[in-house]
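Write out the 3D structure for:
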Amino acid sequence: MKKIFALIIALILTLSLIAAASADAQARTLDEIKESGKLVIGVFSDKKPFGYVDEYGEYQGYDVYFARRLAEDLGVELELVSVDAPNRVEYLTSAKVDIILANFTVTPERAEVVDFALPYMKVALGVVSPDAALITSVEDLRGKTLIVSKGTTAETWFTANEPDVNLLKFDTYTETFNALLDGRGDALSTDNTEVLAWAIENPGFTVGIESLGSLDTIAPAVQKGNDTVLAYINEEIQKLAEEQFFHADYDATLKDVYGDAVDPDNLVVEGGVVE
């Protein structure tokens, strides 16, 4: 028994050391990425129209369009890695990816553990619900069940500001929207850009609250202290403003989704300058 106990303790210590080493993994510098010939970027695979996998198994979306340009201008191949909202930070701190481009809202709390580049999009929270029981104000939600994804600004905002709203949390965006379709909650909250797009594609649901909380920005993120990759992204965002790249990105990936429901200038940020 003593030998078995000792082996168990040794195994636990080994696993702990491996976990610690993984958590403290050093991110690759820009030169190391160039030498490897590959840029690894974390994106969503289920958050249409920003990052998703289409019917042919190919990544598409607003974030993915930008990811491809970053790799192209660096002169390397692009490897896309699927992430979920709760593990975006962990994928950076463990160096599983070089960059996160997964609709990542900039917050002071996140900025303590990752470094954000210049923004490329503006966003606030929105709430979508069934037309038969439309939610049009936060007061309508009190005492009801709101569906959110873990690790999102929606979860943070409602936890801090509306304790009387019951939160039903899921790991992935697919799970959250399926829960709304199944009637497991009264409404769903995430970025207003996403709920507007989803409601357009799902008759019977409407975004009754189009803007909630503060106006935030979406930006790429790198591991804390990865200055060379951060500088490259910032230089790219500033340079791409000359060709209005993110408006072209919008036209290629979002225009058909939103139609006339969204003014591109209310979403797109060029050159990292929020107007």
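Residues 45 and 55 are 12 Å apart (CA to CA).
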